[in-house]
Amino acid sequence: MNKRLFALLVVAVSSAMLLMADEETVDGYTWTYGIYGDEARIDSVTPEPTGAVTIPSMLGGKPVTCIGDSAFSGCTNMTSVTIPTGVTGIDDSAFRGCCGLTSVTIPASVTTIGDGAFDGCSALADVYYSGSEADWGNIYIGINNAPLSSAAIHYNSTEPGGETPLPGDVSGDGKVTAADAAALFAALCDPTAAKDPAVMDLNNDGKVNNRDAILLFRKAARGG
Fold this sequence. Notes:
Elements: H1 3-19, E1 21-26, E2 29-36, E3 39-46, E4 51-54, E5 58-59, E6 62-67, E7 78-82, E8 89-90, E9 103-106, E10 112-113, E11 126-129, H2 133-137, E12 140-141, H3 146-150, E13 152-154, H4 178-189, H5 197-200, H6 210-221
Parallel strand pairs: 3-6, 4-7, 6-8, 7-9, 8-10, 9-11, 10-12, 11-13
Antiparallel strand pairs: 1-2, 2-3, 5-6
């Protein structure tokens, strides 16, 4: 065997091993996945998922970092899906045509959402995103993902009703600005106004007072 043929054979075998699909059963579903270095990509799942589905964070002893092309395409009976922390990519058409999908939980680790990943998800109403609004704005989102644009994005959240209050965000708009500090001062002047310590107690002393308002002004001046 000449050196060139041997080299080609080595490349072919290595590629085959890299792309080799495997299967693992978790929570009643058989997940087909590929191993790429030290990471796993989900390619498909059987039987067709129904109801609320949580994607496993590990397969084959490797962290799941990608939801592959069309992995869940056409799973019309799936109503919600939780994507685990560590996933960085949701590939093209990953959830295309999942018309029964009403909510999806997306971790802050996601950096790309491919073309048509959520195309045809006509019932999608809520996206629970564990990062901030600024983090969401940094995600590359491909074309044909209109359902994501029309859904309500719940920032700093991993589940319905699980939003984590942003200290100082008195207005609840996901930002900390001078307007929030002014609103806090106004609340302090109104004995009947609600004062949420999770948002207003900036120095964590168990009280909401002028010191917190001053800290909030300083926080806003630094850009949040």
